[in-house]
Amino acid sequence: MINHALIEGMTRDDFDDLPTSIVSMDNVLVVPANHFFELHEILDKELGPGFSVRIGQQMKMEDYGVLGLSWKTCSWAGEIFERSERYFKLLSNTYFFRVEKDIGISRVFLNREAYRRGMELSNEATLSATIVVLRAITESDISPVEVSFKHAPPEKLDDYIKAFNCPILFNQPQNYIAYKTEDLEMRTAKADESINRFLLERVEEEARGIELNANKIVYDVENLIRDALPSGIPGVEQIGQIMGMSRRTLTRRLSENGLTFRDLIKRIQEEVSKELLKNPERSIAEIAFETGFSEQSAFSRAFKNWTNQSPAEFRKNQ
Fold it and tell me: Which of 29, 107, 191, 306 is a plausible cystine mate for 187, CB 3.0–4.6 Å?
């Protein structure tokens, strides 16, 4: 936010009175929520209505840390909201998404009550950034059909119109962004890559009258499980669908290597958690999220069953 404000004409001296020093920001992982909201208010006052929407349009998936990395492996567009909901339940009580699907239109509600102006502006930035993220993971021009805010409209709407390019409602009961349901069900670029690879292999099987090596199947399933875990533990049907196989066929192919789907889930969860625990900057809650758990305590119990050590003990012994 500060970097973009500097681009828009503010100077570093303008931020001398911030409760979190601008000099210290490169060395802190988080700032108190109220400091963040205060910054929104300062920038809105200095740079005028629409800064929050403009900053949302500048966000990249990498800016969201672990959550952003998990978005890159989503299989369909709307899956980013499922992953976000899991993430915030584990790591934050700030806000969460809720998707209501209808036949034609789906509304993505941002359930965060704004007790100050900075939170209203942050909500604007979040919904603005949603557009950018969905376009990035689908590599399309997917656009909302309606946006709703609980607060009153600003004096100028130019930046809002440019960013959302759809009807924008103010003084509404809830904050939400709405998309065509079929757009939120759109396969992502990552999913299409996986599907195309497997379909080509199926065609090759037909042409050559051979079956893929069972070891290759296991390798591919492991990678797909790894990608899916931030959305929760995937089912064999879900992975089979991506691979173009029925549940029965996939189960049979895994059994050729003496494995079950459940075996692979546990193995990948253990491997991923051990890898991540070697990085001291990853919190236990983040690792629980990335390995498909809904509660940090459940992850800790499972990890102890695998290794006879708690996650903290394992990290300490590395």
Answer: 191
Whole-angstrom CA distances from 11 to 8, 21, 125 are 9, 14, 22
**In angstroms, how far is CA 37 from the centroid of its own chain?**
22
- Residue 165: per-residue pLDDT: 94
Question: How large is the average pLDDT for residues 291-309?
Answer: 92
Q: How is the beta sheet containing 176-180 ordered, strand by strand?
A: 96-101, 105-111, 176-180, 146-148, 168-169
Q: What is the mean pLDDT of residues 8-23?
A: 88
Measured N-to-C along each axis, helices 261-277 and 296-307 cross at an angle, to the nearest 10 degrees, of 100
Q: Nearest 5°: CA angle at 285, between 284 and 286?
A: 90
Question: Beta strand pairing status for 146-148 and 176-180?
Answer: antiparallel
Question: What is the predicted pLDDT for the residue at 240?
Answer: 86
How far is it, in rounded angstroms, from Cα 136 to Cα 107? Answer: 20
Look at the pTM and tell me if it is higher than 0.90.
no
| Residue 83: Cβ-neighbour burial (10 angstroms; 0-12, 13-18, 19+) | buried
Segment 131-149, tens digit of pLDDT: 999 999 999 999 999 999 9
